[in-house]
Amino acid sequence: MGVIHNTIKTFHPAYFAMVMSTGIISIAAKLLGFTEISYGLFYLNIVAYAIVFFTSDTPGNDVLE
């Protein structure tokens, strides 16, 4: 777990932008009628957000430690 945790802790801030853009595209797909794609992106977004949230190196975030 240490190697994975250290690797994820050094993620570039662009990963947050990936989470945001996935959510935006998911909403747009839903509004355009692409329901299956929308739900797939939504669930991908949940996983990506959890990874970014639980591995962020912010003060007070000692969930994994």
SSE topology sketch:
Elements: H1 2-9, H2 14-31, H3 35-55
Radius of gyration: 14 Å
Strand content: under 5%
Helix amount: over 70%
How many β-strands, per DSSP? 0
Write up what this structure looks like.
The chain is 72% helix and 0% strand. The chain is mostly helical and 65 residues long. The protein has one domain. Helix 2 packs antiparallel against helix 3. The longest helix is centred in the C-terminal third of the chain and has 21 residues, at 35-55. The protein is elongated and about 40 Å long. The mean pLDDT is 79.
Keywords summarizing the entry:
65 residues; mainly alpha
Summarize the structure.
It is built from three helices and no strands.
